[in-house]
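anyone else get weird line breaks when pasting these?? whatever heres mine. first is seq + tokens for prot A
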Amino acid sequence: MNTFHIIINTSLLKSGHWNSRQSRNFGDGRIPEVEVPFSNGRNLSLSTGRYARFADGSAVGELGDTSVMVTAVSKTKPSSSGFVPLTVDYRQKAAAAGRIPTNFLRRELGPSEKEILTSRLIDRSLRPLFPDGYNYETQIMCNLLAVDGVNDPDIISINAASAALTLSDIPWNGPVGAVRIGLIDNEIVINPTRKELSQSGLNLVVSATRHNLIVMLEAAADNVLQQDFLKGIKAGVKECQNVIQSIQQLQKHYGKAKREFEPISSPNPEITDAVKSLSEMRLREIFRDRTHDKLSRDLAVSAVRTDVIDKLKQSFSEGMDVNAITESFNQICKQTFRSLIFEDNIRCDGRSMEDLRNINCQVDLYKPLHGSSLFQRGQTQVFCTVALDSPESAMKMDSITMLTSGLKEKNFFLHYEFPPYATKEIGRMGPAGRRELGHGALAEKGLRPVVPSDFPFTIRLTSEVLESNGSSSMATICGGSLALMDAGVPISTPAAGVAIGLVSRYEGTDTKHMEDYRLLTDILGIEDYMGDMDFKLAGTKKRHYCTSS
């Protein structure tokens, strides 16, 4: 298995230009606005100060005749969650296209699959840049004001959300910029229109921040070669710098001073040193024990955590904060896990950096099914089925999704399920959540290019994750290929997926100068949690890419 490391070093472009409507006077009827210049001449407009002025930050993005308003609001009191409590809500209004909803009530109801997937896209572009310890509930709301059916609102939404957070007083280490990259006749196209995208072999979204650092990638590709894919990433990061510099100009004149905040449960050095002395060597033994599997390793770490807390309760009986001890333990656990990868060049399960876990495959499991497969990679197991039906069973798109994507119906779709027992947990089962919709859409992107477009049946592919220790969406692509072939669907070539992780070292907090790194092939769940990247990639035997995230 070949892996590669992307190093992008492009020069910064000139700053965006203020257009004629800019003004420092909010009361003179003109709008504080910047134009973001792209190399194709289709400029993005970002403005503030007109709408939703009670929000902590507000911005409007406009490309062509598509406009999105984004607001950012964050509470002033911290929550008790152990992660950034960020919520991103993107909503498509039928009124934005001059349409009336087609449901019985004639009004917008719950979020559609397209809205949820776009919300996740925006979330992944913003979440990594919140400062460590910022546990204040934050909500980003993206409101589609107008849509022209030519320019997709998702890229506009990411950039407007970046502007809203940058202009607000919410602590955030942005801005980010985002562009869509197409590939037509082997030529890169920046922010392609809907018509251009239908002719493109690549649909790549790149989000990047300053110093040409990539934050998020998402792509669908029709068997694109590796060198063309890398060329698209490099062009996207370069164009993102225009967005970043334009937002910084807007912030310089109209941005609020960032508020001060206290990281929740910030442990004092005395507690940190005590936790380290009680746990570091024991954690090293656990992470070097190659006999552990997911459950036994988690139980061993949990036992050390409980023991450390109990001992420190006795030593720090007065004013002892259990949350602070737990947070300190989690930090030391992460540092220890990452350090061992550099020291030993061996991962916690005994694999080298490039090794895949053991793979086992079965097909034709149950005769009543049109196609079925069981794919096992390490402790990740998925059961896939294929059902074939008439063209009338195709999935119909809602009116706004039809307008923005040009797709009226889908005759191939994938449904992904992740029940709680897959990770030895208890939970309620119900409609697919955001995570399940996102992972299912990602796997569907990886398989759609190999399914014939003229196949005379509707195909429903399902994937149920029975066991999970990382990379279940990529296992779905592998199992899905098997199930499609078992059902007799004439796919052009089998596709497979794998998740690549990254563990890196920097000089302090200076992310511009990487001291060392390790790329991890086929990551475990713990390597995803402790690492810096979860890069999912699907392709064919000839190094043709089908999807990435």
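and prot B, same format (seq, then tokens)
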Amino acid sequence: MSDGGLLLNFDLTDQPLKRQVKYTGGRWRDRVSAQRSAKRNEDGLSTGTNATPLSTDRRDRNASLPDDIGNDRPAKRQRIQGDSHHERPDVSSRSLSYMTGKLPPGSINAGPRNPNHGNNNKPGGITSRLFTSNPTPKTVFEDPVEDAEPAQPSNAPLSDEAENFHALGLSRRIAQHLSTKLEMKAPTSIQKNTIPLLIKEDNDAFLQAQTGSGKTLAYLLPIVQRIMAMSQHEDGSNTGVQIHRDSGLFAIVLAPTRELCKQIATVLEKVLRFAPWIVSTTVIGGESKKSEKARLRKGVNILVATPGRLVDHLDNTQVLDVGTVRWLVLDEGDRLMEMGFEDELKSIVSKIRKEELKPSNKDGVVFDKLPQRRVTVLCSATMKRNVQKLGEISLQDAVHITGTTSGNDGETTAETDEAVFAAPSQLKQTYLIVPAKLRLVTLIALLKSSFARKGSVMKAMVFISCADSVDFHFELFRNASTRPASETSITDNTVADAAYITSPANPTVELLKLHGSLAQPVRTATLNSFRTSNDPCVLITTDIASRGLDVPAVDLVIEYDAAFSVDDHTHRIGRTARAGRPGKAVLFIQPGCEEGYIDLLNSTASSVAPQSYESTLQKGFFTPITLPKPDKETDPPTLVSERQTPKSRAEALQLHIEQRLLATEKEGSNNKLLDSARQAFRSHIRAYATHVRDERKYFDITQLHLGHTAKSYGLREAPGGIGGGPSRRTFKAGQNRGGEKKGADKNDGDKASGKRGADNDDIPAVDDAAAIRMRTKMREVMNVASEFNIG
């Protein structure tokens, strides 16, 4: 340098110069991880990590870089001593693997960590963060107080010895049959108030009573009694009149779903075993109209039907003569109106009334013992506006009958104030405040603790909002490897052995699913399997099983997704505590705006203090969790963690489920559990937005955390496509949307066939005009919610 130049004086330290490396490309988490790894090496902390940047500047390729990132070829992963097959990844790669889902097998079992991995590693390996960033409940939890004396059942048969079926006006033959064959010694309150009135008088009636109180027999027994009276005297002697199946159609019973129709037909069949000459049948869809026409042509005395299919037969089946019909029963009237059957009901009522009432049949049998006018019986849980409208359509000078009054007040449905429909008093209700991330593990813990003792719970029902979610939870909870692969049955995809929720006391728990998108034979066989099972079993279902179904020994009802209205909630929990039996119902509620829903429920029922999820996790995960049978014998049969606590087990279980979902995608399995979880999540979000208008302030879709909700489906991020509407379904050639072959009946009338977006449960396979009319009506009446009007 020349003397006149500028002299710069630099103060250099003893440390060698290190060029700053700039990491570009890839994900920001990967770049941060590489920078931290380089910083640790600069500080002299040997961690043994081998993080490699995705890319560096070209001019820095040959610079002096840390050993673990300066090479073009990534360094090999260190082998952990004692692990001969799988190497445990380092901190950076494990963090990246958690985000991408590429975890090595066995990583959910927390084992000893590499001591060279630094101080930032927590024991237990990767954990699923379930107990952080959760909203704080506003509800103040109190210790549950056990009642000193259990509540007296409000729907049990009467205990008065003077009250028996013969005293109500039924013949001794019927009363003896009920007592000996059906083991029914005494009537319930609604039966006591209804049977004498329908036997002696010809007035229309509106029946209103609690769930499980015996409304079905309340209207069936008077019908059977008056038909029997034509062939027998009061003392049981024969009148000489021969009543047979071709004598005429005397009664029509309408119900909204096929399951309820089949249940009514089953009860009626049991009652008619003492009189086999009186014939009943059903026309509910799910089979060809040719088969139904053949039964109608042979003759029937009592017909149980769904409205859509009955309208079809009234229009097209000439052998169906309604001139002899004396009774028209509308069971679950509020549900009939909610499901859009108003036009069909108007058509049925008008066609029956238009037909002239015949005093005798073609054989000359005079119907002097039957009502001399057409009697309509309406059964409904509430006196809502749509039910009042149905009463105006079908009832004339009706008598309002409840389970608490005598029923002879002469009031009409229009003059009766709206009554509060309460759950049975012996039903114990619990509300669990559960954050969205913890919903899935809390459900497993609740079911596991319920079956922890032998005989404590035999049958449980889990209500979920949509069919897609039912399918996902069934596939997740099932233990498919326990059933032989060669076994073929109609219920192969709806009945299986359960995993996760078994216990040493109940090593086998049967798992079932039911929703309206299943074929009718499958639905019938599944429900029959649930009824007749002698083993502990769990039915995962939609609202298709919430109305009228009477399943013996249901001890527990879980509302995993809240009902779309308070009335639907009451019907759901009414599947337990029937006919005086005890029962328990549990409702899942999320912290935040949903907590106000508890006050709404308490205003219509007895006050019940809510509970936190922590006690449920303590009970359910107190013991290790049994996983589904592994594919490899080397895999562990139970889920363990380094810290054997309920919370650590919950986190390990959540991580196991997340890895299980990702494994099905990686392995290309036919199970496709991950796709099922994504579709179930989308359907659940759409369903969440369809609560009735008055209750949407409690279920505000804008306050729902989508990421935390996705966690409850085993997903690590919320999938897209939520607002795009139901996904399009493809159907095989030769099939229509209802799943039946071309040429089969399109007017199903059940609202429970066909799968539109999998979350539109119970949509009928009707003709195009009826479908358009129904969709228009559903858009106009958005304040009426059920499982079919979502999407």
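btw re prot B: The two ends are 80 Å apart (CA to CA). Residues 193 and 406 are 5 Å apart (CA to CA).
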